[in-house]
Amino acid sequence: MRRTIFDLDVLRTFTTGVDLGNFAKAADKLGRSTSAVSAQLKKLEQQAGTPIFQKSGRGLALTDAGETMLAYARRLLDLNDEAASAIHGIELEGWVRLGLQEDFGETLLPNILGQFARAHPKVRIEARVARNAELIERVTSGRLDLALAWNNSAPLPNSERVMEVPMCWVGPVNPNLIWHRSDGEPLPLAALEAPCLLRTAAINALDRAGIAWRLAFISPSLGGLWAATAAGLGLTIRTPIGLPKTVQPILPGENGLPMLPKIGLDLHRADAESAPVTARLASIILHALQEFQPADAKAA
């Protein structure tokens, strides 16, 4: 049996098109013609020996084999890029200071630190998990080199919008603890201490919908917020990213809850021209975030 060797260049075109939701956009981003991209996708299906796309309305959707291919393509490209970085960037030295929102502390951070340390063993990373206001203050004052934080307004100087993430109501997994709306009873909210962008969004949405509410639990940390929500002390508002197994998102309109907007996720830099170690870490962060992007998030 002839061994199949997938073309990494083809796999990169494939993943880029899926991430952008449009292979014409992928052609523009990769500097190729649409006919060249089409030829690459045909080559991929030939190598796979099975259809990876199926018609969906006016567009294309992945088949089951396509979904499997996408997962392996990402892993192959990650390993390729990590190897290239380790070989060509092994002389990077110094240190870089990174700040992350609490939502990413247990999910994204270990992946980033592990990948960066393997590729650049001579670089030291100092990581800080904190609230939005503190992260932005530290990066603008130069006490952090990079910070990943929520933002519901235009990006700040030296920052870029990574994606737009949907906010969602979050309640306990136990159905017996989920709040059900009744006349005159205010909605119990579990929230982080002010200032909190998501807390403000929740209150504004409830006020616009004419739904009475009360602050039933206030926490200085995300861990306390998850514990209170899991115990049924109140509903909270967050994004689908980083939700623990003890809580679950509540569908829009369920229990009469109002729709919620999206919130921006920005990568902030201390300087317009980053040092090589900072630029490399930023690249790894942006790449790693693709795995955490919810299906209905909008890439910037």
Structure description:
The chain is of the alpha/beta class. The chain has 3 domains: 8-88, Arc Repressor Mutant, subunit A; 94-165 and 264-291, 3-Layer(aba) Sandwich (D-Maltodextrin-Binding Protein, domain 2); 168-260, D-Maltodextrin-Binding Protein, domain 2. 39% of the residues lie in helices and 24% in strands. It is built from 9 helices and 13 strands. The chain has helices at 8-20, 23-30, 34-48, 64-88, 108-119, 132-140, 197-209, 222-230, 276-289, and strands spanning 53-56, 59-62, 94-101, 123-130, 146-151, 159-166, 168-172, 187-192, 213-219, 236-238, 247-250, 262-269, 298-299. The protein has a 6-stranded mixed sheet. A 3-stranded antiparallel sheet has the order 10-7-11. Helix 1 packs across helix 2 (23-30) and helix 5 crosses helix 9. It is globular. The two termini are 44 Å apart. The mean pLDDT is 84.
